[in-house]
Specification:
Largest sheet of chain A: 5 strands, mixed
Oligomer: homodimer
Order of helices and strands of chain A: EHHEEHEHHEHEHEHEHHEEHEHEHEHH
Helix content of chain A: 25-40%
Mean pLDDT of chain A: 95
Strand content of chain A: 15-25%
Number of helices of chain A: 15
Chain lengths: 373, 373
């Protein structure tokens, strides 16, 4: 089995649909795209997915189907395709888990920095969560954004990252924003002795991405944020592989895949695939915020980002999306020190941005002193 | 309004949720990602989406929200992000329509060949549908696939295209498949006096795509198939823009977006976005086949691919996904001559591939003689 790629699906049958036929149909659709009676016997045996097991689970069924690793042809896009290409247009098929054989992991380098490396970049050796602030809103000038950067850095925030809607708009063009924000953070660090990092949002037409990545590096930034589903997963992998920068993965557009009965489980897409393509931290919408993730989704994502996986480095969970700062202590308790808390709205609600950020930064620093906040 | 990008959403409220608040929330989430009371007044006015109208529609609401074109910053990834980036992780939000202002269309060239150009490449001046055969299955050698190509070309199929699972697997590596299949089709054309085209599936790691596109062109192919959602929409746009090849867009992975209450309408994604990024034909799963599209979905996709749109060329609808060949006449009647019928399984079920393909090709040729089949 280790030379095969086994995928676990949760199947929801419509009335009259047979679970065994549905599982077999997935195995055929994702390889030969033909009914079994049109496929040569040798290919049925060696190429078509093999239903390894099928078990009822409440009103659904869990099917484990294995595929020959050769079906991937060594390409990440073809892995996506095998996972959920054509079956995305069917119904009641949810991809839950992948058993990663070594030959497939070879395509997927995992984080370059990981939890330890990103801690090092932030100068935070002690076992406490990191604080990340979202730089917003769209519509401010580069100078205004840089001023917010400066105040967030002086407050001791570990990472300031662009909102994912900040692209190359005229209000704050990428070049200007990069230069002014990185300068502001560097100045604030000199002033305070701190080590805040600024991660710009890397977006753009395909032909501009590499140039921008170089610009970011040359400006002295140590990382970027990018949205793998928007850019393309293999674009994100390629950018992460080419650069020495840390990468925060943003979940924009992924929500379309998170149907309860049809799609890809969020812990698989955000927790494993984003990690394996090279994200050092993965942003996701925390339960209780503006989005629809459950507590179980969040815990499962955290687990998948951190657990052992073929020698790949663990990545930071970065819960965000409307974290209620008055409940931050509860989340620290629940998620543990290897977490980056991403605060946006909670900071901009404060009468004084710097004081608000400083209070949160102080709260996180207490964790490492052993005194649970 | 013409300088603004207006997006129409179908909103499904959960119990207790206000439609007006939900619409306003979309407008904020997709721009500033902050509640209104944290946003400077000037930005609220000039940057945040504006709810232009909100009307009940059965148990749902239709909201029309306009955004300043500047919010896109001239980038296709940011358009995707604005359309469904963060709201993908909410619930009950379906993007139905975009009013395309000229400034946004400038980013999107549309098909290079379109319906007329692809007809020319195929040597089919008469007003009849085209016949496209899927080359399959995965697992055959390049020589075996080339033999199928030859027989399909001799039968008078207009386009033979790789199955979208054919990548660079050892069974039929891309280089070999390209060389042998294109050679087989060219030989068959010489023998028969026909003008069948072979469109290989363009896939691969990001760094290999351009090289492969060049190879395809140098081999003498006139087009390729690619999967925009798998590669990334802007990768597909970029490849289409750089090459003179015709492009068939495959819908792999898009099905995740087609929720009835949450997602992007298939006619918008496949019918407009795929056309605008440069697809000359767009494959979609026909109603009544192996997939879940409705008759209305299919008709709406056809309409969006062909209707006037900012001077962009019309693209071919390419219904496939298990077309019952015994009902082909009905589909011809319903979809009209500017359609490419994609037949896969229907051909491989035939006792003789060449005879089966020849019968279908003959059927389509009758259409142009004015005798409805």
């Amino acid at each position: 089995m280790t030379d095969r790629l086994a995928i676990t699906y949760l199947l929801t049958c419509s009335p009259g649909e047979s679970p065994a036929e549905k599982a077999r149909d997935v195995a055929l659709e994702q390889t030969v795209e033909l009914p079994a009676d049109c496929v040569p016997a040798e290919i049925l045996e060696s190429v078509v997915g093999r239903v390894e097991s099928l078990e009822p689970a409440g009103d659904r069924h869990v099917a484990r189907i294995s595929y020959p690793v050769e079906a991937l042809g060594g390409e990440l896009p073809q892995l996506l395709n095998l996972l959920f290409g054509n079956v995305s247009m069917k119904a009641g098929i949810r991809v839950e888990e992948i058993d990663w054989p070594p030959a497939v992991l070879e395509l997927l380098p995992g984080p370059r920095h990981g939890v330890e490396g990103l801690r090092r970049l932030c100068g935070v050796a002690e076992p406490r969560p990191l604080l990340c602030a979202a730089l917003k809103p769209l519509g401010l000038s580069a100078g205004e954004l840089a001023d917010r950067c400066r105040r967030l850095a002086l407050a001791g925030v570990d990472v300031v990252k662009d909102d994912h809607s900040l692209a190359d708009q005229g209000w704050a063009p990428f070049d200007q924003r990069l230069a002014l924000c990185q300068h502001a953070v560097a100045e604030a660090n000199r002033e305070s002795g701190g080590s805040t990092l600024y991660f710009p949002n890397l977006t753009g037409a395909l032909g501009d991405l590499r140039g921008r990545l170089d610009q970011v590096r040359r400006a002295g930034c140590r990382g970027v944020m990018l949205s793998p589903m928007v850019l393309g997963l293999d674009v994100a992998r390629s950018l992460a592989a080419e650069s020495e920068l840390a990468v925060l993965g943003h979940p924009a557009l992924t929500g379309a895949l998170f149907g309860r009965r049809h799609g890809i489980a969020p812990e698989l897409l955000l927790g494993e695939l984003f990690r394996l393509i090279g994200c050092d931290g993965v942003i996701y919408p925390n339960v209780g915020g503006r989005f629809v993730f459950s507590r179980e989704d969040c815990l499962a994502i955290n687990d998948r980002l951190r657990r052992p996986l073929g020698g790949r480095r663990p990545a930071f969970p970065v819960p965000g999306g409307g974290i209620d700062t008055s409940r931050l202590e509860e989340w620290i308790e629940r998620y543990g020190p290897d977490t980056i808390f991403l605060i946006g709205t909670g900071l901009y609600r404060e009468p004084d941005l710097e004081a608000g950020a400083s209070a949160l930064a102080g709260l996180l620093r207490q964790v490492s002193c052993g005194s649970r906040p």
